[in-house]
Amino acid sequence: MVAAGSVAGCTKTDTASGGSLLQQLQDSGTVTVGFAGEAPYSFEQDGKLTGATVALHREIFENLGIDNVEGVSTDFGALIPGLQARRFDVVSAGMSILPQRCEQAAFSEPEFNYTTALMVPKGNPANLTDMQSVQQSGVRMAAMTGAIESDYAQQLGIDAMQVASPQDGMDAVANGRADVFALTGISLNWLAQNNPQVPVEVTNSFVAVIDGVPQVGAGGTVFRKEDTELRDAYNAELAKITSDKEKYLSIVGPFGFTEEELPDPNLTTAKLCGETG
């Protein structure tokens, strides 16, 4: 069973009450995940939590003896604060693994490689192709609060409008409040394909370049730093999936993910977090 909801408050499990979080989740049979409604990673559909990250979680947590996945909806930028405040046990959002985030929380090994794309009005009137073209054109850009594309904009000196969700970003482009909305290619293509009536299109995906450095990235599940036993158990099950292309695609393929999103085994969380030695 996978349920979605938006009720704030503490989870049923709390490591402060004694015992490891993994054991508490196994005892209760339920894990509560925070999600931000970014399709096709994790989102609500017909009152149920679904998406590629959720599908991975169903498989992995069931293998760990935790049969139920429940969701708490929150804005993307509030996911790590919500995790730290114990509103949920883990974050299910395909969140980019970045050094500054690694200072606040612990990440699984990569679950998805990702690239960026741009959502623009039909016809792409400004002929945008990448972040530099956005910077040079001076168009009005929208980015999701807390998302990596918002960081790209800041690093390039782009004054981006902040939106709370992918839907808000698409709406901003559709109604003319923004000229471009930057997000992962997977998310933008899903949005466009599932909203064919909206007069927008998505550019080809690209690897963003900041200060001459390609921003090759990956996303994973987020844990509190103290929940190392749960993270390590999760990683052991995740490795069984990401090392088996057919198994991986059988889980995430229905949500538009392809072999291109299969994590590069050489791109580890330690490297993405900037750890050395």
TrEMBL record:
Solute-binding protein family 3/N-terminal domain segment(s): 30-252
Keywords: Signal
Pfam families: SBP_bac_3
Superkingdom of the organism of origin: Bacteria
One example of a Gene Ontology biological process annotation: ectoine transmembrane transport
InterPro entries in the record: Ectoine_EhuB, Solute-binding_3/MltF_N
GO MF term (any one): ectoine binding
Name of the protein in its database record: Amino acid ABC transporter substrate-binding protein, PAAT family
Higher taxonomy: Bacteria, Bacillati, Actinomycetota, Actinomycetes, Mycobacteriales
